[in-house]
Amino acid sequence: MKNFKKIMLIFFLFIVYLFLSMYTYANNVSSDIANSVFRLHVIANSNSKEDQELKYLVRDNLISYMNILCNNISTKEEAIKLAEEHKGEFYEIAKRTIVENGFDYDVKIEIGNFAFPTKTYGDIALPSGYYDALKVEIGNFQGENWWCVMFPSLCFVDITNGVVPEESKNNLQLNLNEEDYNVIASEHTDYQFKFKIIEFFENAKLIMAKK
User: Fold this and answer.
1) Domains: count for the chain
2) Degrees (nearest 5) of the Cα angle 166, 167, 170?
């Protein structure tokens, strides 16, 4: 009986150690990834066909402008600084797009740290978690969300058939260590398993934050 209790205690301590190790790993990698990207979050007025189409028009115009701004930068901090400095222009572009398409919705532009679900961009996948982003709320912002990465630019219209530009991958690699980059870009089974571990813990954090 004593030997059995010792075995169970050792097994329990091993499980605790394993859990803490996975949590630490997931937290470190997730933080590294979040610290390397600046994202875009657009919320439509509603889920009507017209409002969803308008959301994509606003998205495309904002992405085009951001790509011009970020043409010669190499860090997320620079991207956020430029976005803050040109926040008024982002509002004007979004508002003009809305008016030119026959709507009178207001629009709210906010730069901050927000919750994101797991999203895949071509052959790059980002785990759920909190990311710095430019958030755009159109009208009553009750419609479906749209997410992408503004820096490095992983935004493209056709996500299903899209391929992440090599330049964007290079920028990601410059801002991430090899392990972190392989987690979000590798098709190898071991890295896919690590991605699932990160996803599990980050989803748990998001659920706890909502309570």
Assistant:
1) 1
2) 85
